[in-house]
Amino acid sequence: MNLRRFTPAVALFLLLPAGLAGCAKETPAEHAANVYAQQEVDAAPPYGNVPDYSLPAGELATAQHLTKVHMTMHFAEEIWDIVSLLLLLGFGVIGWMRDVAVRFRSRWVQGYVFLGLYVFAGSLLSLPLDLYEQHLELKYALSVQGWGSWFGDQAKTFGLVWVVGGLLVMLLFWIIRRAPRRWWLVFWVCTIPIVFFGIYLAPYIEPIFNHYEPLQATQPALVAKLEEVVQKGHMDIPPERQREGDHAERRCGGLWREQACSGVGQHDYQSHAG
Q: Considering the entire predicted model, what is its pTM?
């Protein structure tokens, strides 16, 4: 395969993000918020809290401890992912998955059978760490998602990974057959538009995990606090943009198991795990 055919496409995908970033301009509201934030940081003592967001001593110690635990969990999960893969290889589990998959004639069935077995085994091996992480979220009141809903999200995640991942696996092997010497470059180029497509598809996937309802009706005090954060950050939302998704959300669970509060607008919403 002639590599020169892909040179313009590669150059375009590499330069496009830089070009878009260069065209982006800072709005007056963003400038005011950045100036205010820098003033607060400059006024804070070294290694201390920003004055407007100071925590009581007990809560600060708890937050610092939780940060250390999350950092430890992050590296533990990365190491365990490698170890679990070596265990699957060393005990011949991967070979057994291959033997099961090749019993079928269809390449599509083979790919999905192998991927399903592999994802299932990986999910079981990572389950102890995932359970402990969810336990921490509940213990420190970072999540209100119950265990039943959490396990439901795990099953939904498995289904999405299996379906979407199977398509990517079949695309990869089709490219390997078509371009055995440059498959890695062709597949990389193909994944770039797929990633962009996934970003725009995310809002349609969210309802699988979350159900949104008005927050003002159930948590008016929380809405008032969020409005204070907006005012302190000089992030006043123009009226014409308040219906474009500038909502206060409490996201409980989801594809990436996030719990966060973000942005406040005229219409405040609360999301519960679906």
A: 0.66
Does some domain include residue 155? no
pLDDT digits (tens, 9 = 90+) for 101-134: 999 999 999 999 999 999 999 999 999 999 999 9
Domain-located, residue 163 = no
Q: How far apart are CA 80 and CA 87, in angstroms?
A: 10
Q: Count Cβ atoms within 10 A of the Cβ of residue 8 and give its class: 0-12 exposed, 13-18 middle, 19 or more buried.
A: exposed
Q: Indicate whether 77 belongs to any domain.
A: yes
CA 103, 107, 112, 118 dihedral sign is: positive
| Bridge partners, residue 273, by sequence | 210
Label each residue of the chain as H, E or C.
Answer: CCHHHHHHHHHHHHHHHHHHHHHCCCCHHHHHHHHHHHHHHHHCCCCCCCHHHCCCHHHHHHHHHHHHHHHHHHHHHHHHHHHHHHHHHHCCHHHHHHHHHCCCCCHHHHHHHHHHHHHHHHHHHHHHHHHHHHHHHHHCCCCCCCHHHHHHHHHHHHHHHHHHHHHHHHHHHHHHHHCCCCHHHHHHHHHHHHHHHHHHHHHHHHHHHEEEEECCCCCHHHHHHHHHHHHHCCCCCCHHHCCCCCCCEECCCCCCCCCCEECCCCCCEEEEEC
CA distance 40 to 268: 27
The 10s digit of each residue's pLDDT in 242-253 is 333 333 333 433
- Domain hosting residue 100, numbered range: 56-142
Torsion of CA 72, 73, 76, 81, to 10 degrees: -150
